[in-house]
């Protein structure tokens, strides 16, 4: 197992991204290929899970678009990822917040995590 | 049909130059040593025998020790014959350098043993398809295995339940994604038969 990880690290580079986890609101900018043209697109939503480890780690973002839930899965090592901005840190109790899928409106809100200053 | 002997390390995914995420198998291939050269005159056919993987001296029979010392190498665990290797001398070392990126290779291995399996898993039968209408214990049954008084027997080769897996399987036309000569690693697109750590034959 370790040998796979070791070689995988050599084969794929994972860029440095800001720290984030389930419940955080992200704005992800990624490249889109249309024919031979490339353009940027962004996707803003709540992280509902991070999955895997190392070069094959992915994260899932969920947003409500036009009344329907939309989820996108991004591999962290994807060469199409351009930028990840953590817009809000959410206070959630679990690593995978799938319960969000069953909720809409008021109950789908996530409390913002309070930052305590270190004295 | 030049080739090399290797060991399966496991699978991962690698991004191609176009940004596609390719499922890949990592193979530790070589270095192999030419342990015998068979010729038309002496053996009736031309081939080359390669050895791979170190073997302890105490686990090697005297006969094999003599065989390996003739080639001037230490005892090897796995020995495989390859036909029509272009040119080789006894004791030559074959490494992954013989492969190029983008080339297509065949990989031979022994598939994972599944034990005694039914007809659904073994041959891909559909099963009955429903759980009601009188099926109480026949959901994965094979169904009819032939007609009655004529031919009054079951034809040979009828697909039935039995030992599954553990066979020699060849995966053909797997593309080489990357060759890492300094680590003796071959990265091949797609899956390869067998468990992690099992021996593989990679043919050009």
Structure commentary:
The complex is a heterodimer of chains A (119) and B (204). By secondary structure, chain A is mainly beta. Helix content of chain A is 8%, strand content 41%. Chain A starts with a helix and ends in a 31-residue tail after the last strand. The model of chain A has no long low-confidence stretch (mean pLDDT 88). Chain B has 204 residues and is mostly beta strands. Chain B has two domains: 147 residues, Beta Barrel (Elongation Factor Tu (Ef-tu), domain 3); 47 residues, no CATH class. Helix content of chain B is 9%, strand content 41%. The interface between A and B is medium-sized, with 16 and 16 residues.
Feature tags:
heterodimer; A: 119 residues; mainly beta; five-stranded antiparallel β-sheet; 1 helix; globular; B: 204 residues; Elongation Factor Tu (Ef-tu), domain 3; 2 domains; six-stranded antiparallel β-barrel; four-stranded antiparallel β-sheet; 3 helices; 12 strands; extended
What is the CATH first-level class name of the largest domain in chain B? Answer: Mainly Beta
Estimated helix fraction of chain A? under 10%
- Output the CATH homologous superfamily of the largest domain in chain B: Translation factors
Shape of chain B: extended
- Average pLDDT confidence of chain A is 88
Can you summarize the main beta sheet of chain B?
6 strands, antiparallel, barrel
**Category by helix and strand content of chain A:** mainly beta
Strand elements of chain A, count: 5
Radius of gyration of chain B: 23 Å
Helix content of chain B: under 10%
- Overall geometry of chain A comes to globular
Report the span from N to C terminus of chain B.
5 Å
Could you give a short account of the major beta sheet of chain A?
A: 5 strands, antiparallel
What is the number of E strands of chain B? Answer: 12
* Largest interchain contact: A-B, 16 and 16 residues
Specify Rg of chain A, calculated over alpha carbons: 16 Å
What is the H/E order of chain A?
HEEEEE
What fraction of residues of chain A sit in β-strands? Answer: 35-45%
- What is the H/E order of chain B? EEEHEHEEEEHEEEE
**Structural class computed from helices and strand pairing of chain B:** mainly beta
Number of helices of chain B: 3
């Amino acid at each position: 197992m370790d040998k796979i990880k070791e070689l995988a690290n050599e084969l794929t580079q994972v860029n440095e991204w800001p720290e984030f986890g389930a419940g955080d609101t992200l704005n992800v900018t990624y490249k889109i290929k249309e024919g031979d043209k490339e353009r940027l697109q962004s996707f803003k939503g709540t992280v509902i899970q991070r999955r895997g480890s190392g070069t094959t780690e992915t994260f899932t973002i969920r947003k409500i678009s036009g009344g329907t839930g939309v989820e996108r899965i991004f591999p962290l090592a994807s060469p199409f990822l351009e930028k990840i901005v953590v817009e809000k840190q959410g206070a959630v109790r679990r690593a995978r917040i799938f319960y969000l899928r069953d909720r809409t409106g008021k109950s789908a809100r996530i409390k913002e995590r309070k930052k305590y200053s270190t004295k | 049909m030049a080739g090399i002997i290797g060991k399966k390390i496991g699978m991962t995914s690698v991004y191609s130059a176009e940004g596609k995420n390719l499922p890949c198998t990592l193979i530790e291939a070589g270095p192999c040593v030419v342990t015998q050269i068979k010729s038309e005159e002496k053996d009736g056919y031309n081939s080359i025998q390669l050895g791979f993987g170190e073997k302890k001296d105490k686990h090697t029979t005297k006969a094999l020790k003599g065989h390996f010392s003739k080639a001037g190498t230490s005892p090897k665990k796995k020995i495989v014959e390859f036909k029509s290797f272009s040119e080789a001398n006894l004791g030559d070392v074959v490494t992954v350098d013989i492969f190029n990126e983008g080339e297509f290779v065949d990989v031979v291995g022994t598939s994972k043993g599944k034990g005694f399996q039914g007809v659904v898993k073994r041959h891909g039968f559909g099963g009955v398809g429903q759980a009601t209408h009188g099926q109480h214990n026949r959901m994965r049954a094979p169904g009819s295995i032939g007609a009655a008084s004529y031919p009054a027997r079951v034809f040979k080769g009828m697909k039935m339940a039995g030992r599954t897996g553990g066979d020699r399987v060849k995966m053909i036309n797997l593309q080489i994604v990357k060759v890492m000569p300094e680590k003796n690693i071959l990265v091949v697109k797609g899956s390869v038969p067998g468990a992690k750590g099992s021996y593989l034959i990679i043919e050009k």
